[in-house]
Amino acid sequence: MEGTFASEQSLYSFAPRNVPKPLAWGTYKSEPDSHFYICEFHEMTDDLPDVQKFCAIVAKIHRDSMGQSPNGKYGFHVTTHLANIGNDNLWGDFLEHWYAKAMKRMLEEEEMSHGPDDDRKELTDAMFEKVIPRLLRPLETSGRRIKPCLIHSDLWPGNVKPDAVTKEPIIFDSCAFWGHNEGRCQSQPTDHV
Predict the structure, then answer these.
(1) How far apart are the first and last CA of the chain?
(2) Mutual orientation of helices 2-14 and 51-65 as an angle, nearest 10°?
(3) How many angstroms separate the Cα of 33 from the Cα of each of 1, 29, 43, 51?
(4) From the centroid of its chain, how far is CA 116?
(5) 75 beta partners
(6) What letter does residue 73 receive in the DSSP assignment?
(7) In sequence order, what E strands does the chain have?
(8) pLDDT tens digits, residue range 99-145?
(9) Hey, what long-range contacts does 106-115 have (CB within 8 A, 24 or more apart)?
(10) pLDDT in tens, 4-36
(11) What is the rounded CA–CA span in Å between residue 141 and residue 138?
(12) Strand pairing report for 160-162 and 81-82
């Protein structure tokens, strides 16, 4: 829950009208394996938010947080979780290295869950040897440098709802990290990738 609290606190600092204010987190004394997170309450509808307002909020967070990473690096200061999977958020100097490390962590979880797979291994090897370096390395070579911005890494319709009163999009459950502004705009794979 510490990661949830820290993520939401960071996101709230850039979009206080659109992120429920984090209030507290902790561990139950009577159940040391049970934890809690408390934030301000927003009555929300189950509708999809206004797309233009939603995109404007995400763009504002990225724009306003760009270059504000506490140490200028990629990552986050505490472990965050996508559901029950811990993210490898250890700080990294270069996007290519940080992204590869984070992807390795997710693929290790995939293999632990589903077992080894020769086809997946072949694709994974090519991704780390060719795809990631070819796509990301040019972004930070020859004097180019990306300024990390705050990313909500779990945007999907379940984590974005309209406020029942104001109709403003409310975003939550961010699993935040400092990364490339286009680095994690959705958590689900698409059919055309």
Answers:
(1) 33
(2) 100
(3) 11, 9, 29, 39
(4) 27
(5) 178
(6) S
(7) 22-27, 35-39, 81-82, 85-86, 149-151, 160-162, 169-171, 177-179
(8) 999 889 889 988 999 999 999 999 999 999 999 999 999 999 999 99
(9) 109/85
(10) 999 999 999 999 999 999 999 999 999 999 999
(11) 5
(12) unpaired
Average pLDDT of the residues of the chain? 90
Residue 148 tokens, joined: 């990390």
Element (H, E) at 51: helix 51-65
Rounded to 10 deg, the angle between the 95-114 and 118-126 helix axes is 180
Name 81's bridge partners.
86
Name residues whose C-beta falls within 8 Å of residue 163's C-beta, 6 or more positions apart in sequence.
42, 43, 44, 169, 170
Measuring CA to CA, which residue among 85, 70, 87, 68 is closest to residue 149? 68
